[in-house]
């Protein structure tokens, strides 16, 4: 049920995900619901943790240490700007620019082209201009004659 | 240069967490700004990913579909882990992966959850700042 690397088979969930809930003293049923696995799988993950406690806890501490570092300084600086922008939006000091929607733009362009084409067609009818009749496809006899003639 | 994000997608183990965050984004006072982005909220099933899809496939699918993956993914040592995938495939225009630094706290603390939702919206409003960022943290 648990792979040697600590993954619950058939899922992306690891024993480290389960360990988060164990440490927070959550009931195994709650853990199962939140992780969308069965209670038996939660039990198997807990058993795996117990059986491999030293290695699991070493890996887990490394993961927590990485998470605790958070974002690098350059990202933190950008996040401060984004946060200031959100605050300014919420306080009404600035407003978002109108959204550019490429699909909406394409639809507007298409509608304009269709309108122009329709208007041009109406105008040509009104002035009596005739559009050339479409070429009729050759009949099968004509095609046959043409093939024999080449022949 | 990439200019679009079409949505967000929650990893399998934090769908409930992301639902909580989206509920906050859908409420006052963030709704106007969240909705202005016109983003979809996708699940693995929506985009044809299995619940045991490897990290590499999840990451490449998200990039192709222009979805920001939100994860609590903590597998770092496997050869096809998210860390390894980002190290090998991330480019300056790749969408980042947003990782919940403390998923349990998102479920427990109202103020903390709001902070995470604010930060998520901050990332999404200014995504051009964060392209190529690899794995970034919430909050």
Describe the fold and architecture.
The complex is a heterodimer of chains A (151) and B (139). Chain A has a domain at 1-94. Chain A has helices at residues 15-23, 28-35, 39-51, 53-69, 73-90, 102-126, 140-150. The radius of gyration of chain A is 35 Å and the shape is elongated. Chain A is built from seven helices and no strands. Chain A has 151 residues and is mainly alpha-helical. The longest helix of chain A is centred in the last third of the chain and has 25 residues, at 102-126. Chain B has one domain (7-138): 3-Layer(aba) Sandwich (Rossmann fold), CATH 3.40.50. Chain B has seven helices and five strands; from the N terminus they run E-H-H-E-H-E-H-E-H-H-H-E. In chain B, helix 4 links the parallel strand 3 (67-71) and strand 4 (97-100). Chain B is globular and about 40 Å long. The two termini of chain B are 26 Å apart. The model of chain B has no long low-confidence stretch (mean pLDDT 91). At the A-B interface, helix 1, helix 2, helix 4 and helix 5 of A face helix 5 and helix 6 of B.
Keywords:
heterodimer, A: 151 residues, mainly alpha, 67% helix, elongated, B: 139 residues, alpha/beta, Rossmann fold, five-stranded parallel sheet, 7 helices, 5 strands, 14% strand, globular
